UniProtKB/TrEMBL annotation:
Residue stretches making up the AB hydrolase-1 domain: 38-268
Classification via InterPro entries: AB_hydrolase (IPR050471), AB_hydrolase_1 (IPR000073), AB_hydrolase_fold (IPR029058)
Organism: Amycolatopsis balhimycina DSM 5908
Protein name: Alpha/beta hydrolase
UniProt entry keywords in alphabetical sequence: Hydrolase
Length: 284
């Protein structure tokens, strides 16, 4: 990779690249400055590269090298999607090491926040800080219901000709509805070189992994010594907000931010406040 290239500052201009490791070609994008500890983004159920809110990516990339990627079997990345969060975490580590990185910050949203917890537990020396949002611990309350809620809201969306994320990520208040429409519009800003949508097989594997995570015995989160910023909306239907409180209570070095009149996608609804908070947290 040519490091003399101009720094990419906008996610919609970040080229999609590939790196091969462990028999998998991982699709990824990177932007922001070339120096410092990179922030690796770990994405949510059914998401591909184009599902990251460009305001959040660009906001963090104004000060940090940001790397987004498709995990195994998702979007443009080859291979078969694991049916466990632990398997996804192992693949994410394979990808991170393939880029030659030895120390990263992790920003995990929803399923990505579950993956981030496992990476911090299994590869503690790799991780400097964690930002986890809309997520919960293994065995967390209501996580095993994600499949049912996702299916229900997908049907609701089909019947009303809307995107399921309008229901899954945002509240049904006027603020929530407006924030959802604005978020979905931002996801369409990139016009060229868009990612492949997730295959149904991969989506089903991810649902199984989240369901298993919800049924697991609670793990000892006191082993995660890194500073952790935990964020969510106050009305998360997918991963109930009490899981965020539970995480913050059980992680030894944590800070909790809860956004009002916001759902699972609280960090996207309050993207300006979230970016400012995350930057302050990462700079400490």
């Amino acid at each position: 990779m040519n490091n003399n290239q101009d720094v990419v500052s906008s996610y919609q201009d970040a080229p999609t690249r590939a790196v091969s490791a462990g028999g998998v070609d991982f699709a990824y994008r990177e932007l922001g400055p070339k120096t410092g500890v990179p922030v690796v983004f770990l994405t949510h159920l059914a998401a591909v590269l184009d599902n990251w809110d460009p305001r959040v990516v660009d906001g963090i990339a104004a000060h940090h090298r940001v790397i987004t990627f498709d995990n195994r079997g998702v979007g443009a990345t080859t291979g078969t999607t694991p049916k466990s969060i632990q398997g996804m975490a192992a693949d994410a580590v394979t990808f991170i090491r393939a880029l030659g990185l030895t120390n990263v910050d992790l920003l995990g949203f929803s399923m990505g926040g579950m993956i981030a917890q496992v990476i911090a537990q299994t590869e503690p020396d790799l991780v400097r800080k964690l930002v986890i949002a809309g997520t919960g611990p293994a065995g967390g309350e209501g996580i095993k219901n994600v499949t049912r809620i996702s299916n229900l809201d997908t049907v609701r969306a089909l019947l009303t000709l809307q995107d399921p994320k309008q229901f899954l990520f945002f509240t049904r208040t006027s603020n929530g509805k407006r924030a959802g429409k604005e978020f979905l519009a931002r996801l369409k800003e990139r016009k060229n070189d868009r990612d492949k949508t997730i295959a149904l097989r991969a989506y089903v594997a991810q649902l199984k992994a989240i369901h298993r995570w919800g049924l697991e015995k609670p793990s000892d989160l006191s082993v995660i010594r890194q500073p952790v910023l935990v964020a969510n909306g106050d009305h998360d239907r997918m991963v109930p907000t009490k899981n965020s409180h539970d995480l913050a209570r059980r992680l030894p070095d944590s800070e909790l931010v809860i956004y009002p009149d916001a759902g699972h996608g609280g960090i996207f609804q309050f993207h300006a406040q979230f970016v400012a908070k995350a930057l302050e947290f990462l700079a400490r």
